[in-house]
Amino acid sequence: MSRLAQQGWDLFPTAIAPSSLDALRDTAFTEGEAGTRCRLDLPVVRHIVIQLRRELAAAGRLPDNAPAIQAIAFDKTPGSNWKVTWHQDVMFPFARPVTTAGFDLPSKKDGVDYARPPRAIVENLLAVRLHIDDCDDANGPLRVAPASHLLGILKSTAIPAALENCGEHVCLARRGEALLMKPLTLHASSPAVSPRHRRVLHVVYYAGPALTEESWYRTV
């Protein structure tokens, strides 16, 4: 069994060219913003999403027809040196307000409809965090709780016990590397000790059966 399946995360060395990373840096990120959603509409992001899928499929990590359903640009700077507490990613964008049983917690963010899909759908999602900058101990790296994705969707009150059982791992990465993560893996990050850019393009792919009752907001 792969580390991704067992631990809920893994590192993947991409072959994305430095010039493409530079284009992402200059286009997909909003200066001073900690996070910018709905990046799938940008041509440069769509190009990277397709290349990432091609590389992951060739490595047996993702079906070659798995659509990307979300892309977010994250950054940490001296002006937006944010902290993220332990959580799972369970809310995803849909084309319209959800009405199907099992799709819960409907909400809107920046005019886009979000909801929590059933566990079976979330378990078929894969987050791919492409690093535009080196990420070391000093600039607020992601921390994960290994194997916590196997516990299902957790209530907030269950998170402390899960962390005690699973422990944590600090995920360092070099520019051009991708961190693969199951969205149900508990993860967090601390403020940077030495704040500087820590730009990450966070892409989510769906590897399950096509949705019938609901539709993703965007797919590539």
Secondary structure layout:
Layout: H1 3-7, E1 9-13, H2 18-27, E2 35-36, H3 43-58, E3 68-74, E4 84-87, E5 92-94, E6 104-109, E7 112-116, H4 119-122, E8 125-131, E9 142-144, H5 159-166, E10 169-171, E11 177-181, E12 187-189, E13 200-206
The oligomeric state of the chains shown is: single chain
Quickly give the CATH architecture. Sandwich
Spatial shape: globular
Strand line-up across the major sheet: 1-11-8-13-3-2
- Low-pLDDT runs: none
What is the gyration radius calculated from CA atoms? Answer: 17 Å
Mean pLDDT: 94
Note the main sheet: 6 strands, antiparallel
- The fraction of residues assigned to DSSP E strands is 25-35%
Number of strands: 13
The first-level CATH class name: Mainly Beta
How many structural units, i.e. domains? 1
The fold-level CATH name is: Jelly Rolls
Helix fraction bin = 10-25%
Please provide a brief summary of the model.
With 220 residues, the chain is of the alpha+beta class. It has helices at 3-7, 18-27, 43-58, 119-122, 159-166, and strands at 9-13, 35-36, 68-74, 84-87, 92-94, 104-109, 112-116, 125-131, 142-144, 169-171, 177-181, 187-189, 200-206. Strand 6 and strand 7 (112-116) form a beta hairpin.
What this model shows, in words?
- There is one protein chain.
- With 220 residues, the protein is α+β, with helices and mostly antiparallel strands.
- It has a single domain, classed as q2cbj1_9rhob like domain (Jelly Rolls, Sandwich), CATH 2.60.120.620.
- The protein is built from five helices and 13 strands.
- A six-stranded antiparallel sheet has the order 1-11-8-13-3-2.
- The two termini are 29 Å apart.
- The relative contact order is 0.27.
